[in-house]
Amino acid sequence: MLIGDMSPALLAGLLYLGSGLGLQLVLFFQRKNSLHELSHLSPRHRLKLIGAVISGGIIAPLCLAFGIKYGTASEVSLLLNLETVATTLIAWLIFKEYIGPYVWTGKVLILIGAGLVVLKAEGGMSFSTSGLLVICACIFWGIDNNLTRDVEELSSTVLASVKGFAAGLFSIFLALVFTTGSATPSQIYGALAVGALSYGLSLVLFVEALRKIGAARTATFFAVGPFFGTLLSVALLGERPPAAYWIATVLMLAGIALLYLEVHRHSHAHEEMAHTHPHIHDEHHDHEHPEGEGALSHDHHHVHRPMNHSHVHWPDIHHQHPH
């Protein structure tokens, strides 16, 4: 509804810039200083942040923007579910995150559904160009998700804002130098507003989930988003997706539903570690505070003592042991 004659690179840049601007406004009211947090970032986390910005903030949005330009909203929305598959494979292969049988079964159903969407039956089976572009975007967002999960030294709002500004300004620069097309003021403001909500607020919530339940499960739950996109494409744009798209929708929803059945519990050891992140006092955070100060979420450098115990848990920042 917004794109008109706007170049895909400019659209990608405005969406991310909108997220950066919107989150900086939030940080202003919270009286937080992004530069202060960035200056205290360790070299290891700084490299991961740079990698996340390049893969998920520059390459992936450009691929998605071109996919939107040349494909239908329903096709693009459904194929975005492949981000969860890419995230899970990378989390398992490279970052050794535990992936249970329910998660793997769900990914297979999502892959089958994606195959129905990306293959066209017109004059024989052929690949959709827009579909392949969206698949590329999903792969790079999978890399981004796994890198972002480990940058725990930055608050989720600051991290999302930094990614928004860096990716947005770079993509806008590319658009102005290498692409053609025009955009009206209302299109620019509209893209910034969509970016502030759908990229900014969404990314803050996504980063919080990454840190609490791990990359694979967060990406799977996040996969409900494209179904809202498909329904809105029918309601707002009048699109009529073919029958194969609705079959794909049922398969993908079944894959997501399987995740709710998973319970993961076993005896595991925590090594001593020291870091900074928002937390409340629980079985992993039992350090002392002045009376009453530990009941609410707070943020400071703290040390975790070694412990060995068993409880239901997810692969969050305190449970990253390999299986």
UniProtKB/TrEMBL annotation:
Pfam families assigned: EamA
Q: Which InterPro entries match?
A: Diverse_Substrate_Transporter, EamA_dom, EmrE-like
Q: Where is the EamA domain?
A: 3-118, 132-260
Where is this gene product found? Answer: Cell membrane
Q: Which residues cross the membrane?
A: 6-29, 49-70, 76-95, 102-119, 125-143, 164-182, 188-207, 219-237, 243-261
- State the annotated membrane topology for this chain: Multi-pass membrane protein
Chain intervals with Basic and acidic residues compositional bias? 275-298, 313-323
Record's superkingdom? Bacteria
Q: Which PANTHER family match?
A: INNER MEMBRANE PROTEIN YTFF, OS03G0707200 PROTEIN-RELATED
Annotated protein name in UniProt: Membrane protein, putative
Organism from which the protein derives: Citrifermentans bemidjiense (strain ATCC BAA-1014 / DSM 16622 / JCM 12645 / Bem)
